[in-house]
Amino acid sequence: MLVESLLYITLFFALGIIFLIFRAIIYPKIRLLQLKKKYGDKIQIVHHYGTGLPMEYRKGFVERNDSMAFVRKMAAEKTNKMQVFGFNIGYNVGLSFLDPELIKQVHQSHDAFQKINISQAFNYLFSDSLFYATGKNWQRQRQFLGKSFHFDEIRNYLPSIKELCSKVTDQLNKDLKANPQQEIQVINVCEKITSEVVFRVFFGSTQENMMITREDGSQLHLSEELVSLIMDSFRILQQNKLLLLKNLILKSYSFKIFPLKEEKWLLNRLVQVKAACEKVVLKRKEELQQNLDQYKNNFLDLYLKEMIENKNSGITYDEIIANFCGLFFAGTDTTGNMTGVALYYLSLNPQIQKEARDEVIRVISKKNQDIKGNDLFSSLQFEDLSNMNLCNSILKESLRLIPPAFGVFPRYVTRDIKIGQYELKKGDLVNTHFIYNQSNPQTFTNPDKFDPYRWMNGNESQNAFNFTPFSLGPRNCIGQHLAMIEGKCMLANFLLNYDILPNESQKVQLEMKIIYGFSQDNLVYFKKRQQ
Ligand SMILES: *[C@@H]1O[C@H](CO)[C@@H](O)[C@H](O)[C@H]1NC(C)=O
Ligand SMILES: *[C@@H]1O[C@H](CO)[C@@H](O)[C@H](O)[C@H]1NC(C)=O
Ligand SMILES: *[C@@H]1O[C@H](CO)[C@@H](O)[C@H](O)[C@H]1NC(C)=O
Ligand SMILES: *[C@@H]1O[C@H](CO)[C@@H](O)[C@H](O)[C@H]1NC(C)=O
Ligand SMILES: *[C@@H]1O[C@H](CO)[C@@H](O)[C@H](O)[C@H]1NC(C)=O
Ligand SMILES: CC(=O)N[C@H]1CO[C@H](CO)[C@@H](O)[C@@H]1O
């Protein structure tokens, strides 16, 4: 009797384990093979046991110096039939859409998808933000935030952007005087500007005195801590397999149930950052409550005014803080890397660099021939930026070749749905890789060539859906105008001050971290120009 029941228990467990192995490891492969059989030439399969898509990025990076190598390869093979690739992440199966028409449909079907919790820091910081909001809540938030990102509104941010550009230039000049071969880490320099811009746009004040103290006693800016938190939250998942597994199984509850050492470490820092933001928000609310005349034109005041004046606004402190963190994350690294890519290509193309510099000088001095040298940048006006056609095209071409957001993060499908002829089941994943048609020779001739002129002089009339670096549909990037304004302003500033030269001894590697871009930040260096 005893032996028999032991036998049953063992059998039961063995079956359970076999089932788990089947579900977690074999099943995704079978589903993907079925998809291949069903859709034939139109689909390719990207499968890795256990890990999935992140492994393919990693493989491309290690073997080909480019995490997106596999997508570029698909685009280069002139089969003309590919529309989608099937992939797995862990035990989930998903489809990634490549064809612009299908991508459009994905972005029109938001109600059928739910964003995944990308990492714990992401979840903790952004879960109340526009990024994760859905339905009516999303509509309300987007409308509210949209007001401040309106093109006409952005003109008010230009003085700040210019001031910050001049500030980093002063520092660079000092450094270069001491050592002309100085390594400058240009993306980092750009991010000093973009991070402070977000801060000012949001809080109306500088972040200079908003410091965070870490456990080891070291102090750093709130913005640096935010970026490093998000990076660390991904890094610990990559380094600790147990943590990864725990996260895959427990999802957002992993923090709460038997937290590991790394999780506690991360959570402490997250709590600290949120508390620091909250302090600023509450202090400002008090000030405005006492005297609404102190109102200034920035996000925080806009939110708080609405909260004070409209009791049914639905706005919460959590939402305000989450949107600050969200905008900060979305507006700092991306714009910095975009500009870094543009500077890299300019360093390789001295002729285009010269033409761009001439354009900047021509446009600014058009109003007044007497403006020269150091005064050029300070007399840059908002309207000038719209006239810098080549600089604009340089940024667009950089975004085409190396888009920081190469697609969208995977989402869960919440009900069975068809995109084109492709059937997705509830629980599947879906994402897009815009980068596909941006490197497709049938869409862009010589796709690997940096050619900003392809965007100029009426060349631009290509299908708008072939080029969507800011995503598309109602949930596209809310900060796209601001990003382009910042990018052009930084380009103009650097072009006027420096010759941009390539660092021939550095190897060029493209890596997918949270965004996509160069893994090194010393691909160019600057030589001071005599003005
Ligand atoms: C990757 O970069 C290294 C160093 O620059 C180079 O030697 C190697 O050939 C590159 N690999 C490929 C596949 O391009
Ligand atoms: C994108 O590339 C695919 C594959 O070559 C092509 O069939 C499709 O027409 C392109 N999409 C557009 C909108 O041009
Ligand atoms: C992500 O986490 C939040 C809680 O923070 C939860 O409400 C939501 O359902 C989670 N989403 C998914 C797809 O697991
Ligand atoms: C160029 O790249 C090399 C190799 O990584 C690096 O040691 C050097 O500091 C870089 N030079 C500049 C000026 O950035
Ligand atoms: C249009 O694009 C082509 C190819 O990119 C380029 O060579 C040409 O100069 C552009 N035409 C104009 C008028 O700029
Ligand atoms: C892909 C990526 O994130 N690239 C870089 C963007 O810029 C920052 C700031 O220098 C780098 O740390 C990233 O590696």
Tell me what the structure shows:
By secondary structure, the chain is an alpha+beta fold. The chain has a domain of 176 residues: Uridine Diphospho-n-acetylenolpyruvylglucosamine Reductase, domain 2. It is 55% helix and 11% strand. The chain is built from 20 helices and 14 strands. Strands 1-2-3-10-7-4 form a 6-stranded mixed sheet, sandwiched between helices. It has a two-stranded antiparallel ribbon with strand order 5-6. Strands 8-9 form a two-stranded antiparallel sheet. A hairpin with a 2-residue loop joins strand 8 and strand 9. The mean pLDDT is 88. The structure holds 2-acetamido-2-deoxy-beta-D-glucopyranose (NAG) (6 copies). One 2-acetamido-2-deoxy-beta-D-glucopyranose binds next to helix 9, helix 14 and strand 13. Its cofactor is heme. InterPro entries: Cyt_P450, Cyt_P450_CS, Cyt_P450_E_grp-I, Cyt_P450_sf, Cytochrome_P450_Monoox. GO terms for molecular function: heme binding; iron ion binding; monooxygenase activity; oxidoreductase activity, acting on paired donors, with incorporation or reduction of molecular oxygen. Belongs to the cytochrome P450 family.
